[in-house]
């Protein structure tokens, strides 16, 4: 069993896509082990995306991620990190395979509806950023 962090980003929440995204996870046999809605401060968004702090899009990305509420989830299942990445599609929606969340709904490389951890180490760090062990069921 593997765990990963999923975020429905401000664009996904404000456009009413929470149910659509969760339905795709559950239909794929992924279990939701934890979930909450929160509104990150700019500082919290900068902390979460610290690995991208030297990128030209860092300021805009952290402005966007702290602009409105997000839904964060811990997903659990076999190979859930790669399964979630398949369901999301490529970061740039223009490169995402048809039928993926980003191909279907993203409007912009930044406003790409969802985030998912890219490896077991980042999943562990990202899950800890939002959840204590007691909140994961
Ligand atoms: P995410 O999977 O959350 O990881 C970093 C985010 O930065 C990415 O999704 C996009 O929302 C955003 N981003 C903006 N511009 C770029 C870019 N040129 N390359 C990669 N990610 C970008």
What does this structure look like?
Helices cover 40% and strands 19% of the residues. It has 137 residues and is α+β, with helices and mostly antiparallel strands. It starts with a strand and ends in a 7-residue tail after the last helix. The site of adenosine-3',5'-cyclic-monophosphate has 8 residues, from loops.
Beta-strand proportion? 15-25%
What small molecules does this complex bind?
Answer: adenosine-3',5'-cyclic-monophosphate
Average of the residue pLDDT scores? 98
Order of helices and strands: EHHEHHEHHEH
The major β-sheet equals: 4 strands, antiparallel
Class per helix and strand makeup:
alpha+beta
Contiguous helical run count: 7
Q: Globular, elongated, flat, extended or rod-shaped: what is the shape?
A: globular
Radius of gyration: 14 Å
Q: Spans with pLDDT under 50 lasting ≥5 residues?
A: none
Helical fraction? 40-55%
Strand order of the largest sheet: 2-3-1-4
The total beta strand count reads: 4
Q: Determine the N-to-C terminus distance.
A: 13 Å
């Amino acid at each position: 069993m593997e765990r990963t962090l999923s975020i429905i980003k401000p664009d996904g929440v404000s456009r009413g896509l929470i149910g659509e995204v969760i339905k795709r996870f559950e239909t794929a046999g992924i279990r939701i082990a934890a979930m909450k809605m929160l509104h990150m401060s700019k500082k919290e968004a900068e902390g979460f995306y610290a690995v991208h702090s030297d990128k030209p899009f860092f300021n805009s990305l952290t402005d966007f991620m702290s602009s409105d509420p997000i839904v964060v989830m811990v997903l659990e299942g076999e190979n859930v990190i790669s399964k979630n990445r398949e369901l999301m599609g490529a970061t740039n929606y223009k490169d995402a395979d048809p039928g993926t969340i980003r191909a279907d709904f993203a409007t912009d490389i930044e406003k790409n509806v969802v985030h998912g951890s890219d490896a077991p180490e980042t999943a562990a760090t990202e899950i800890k950023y939002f959840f204590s062990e007691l909140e994961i069921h």
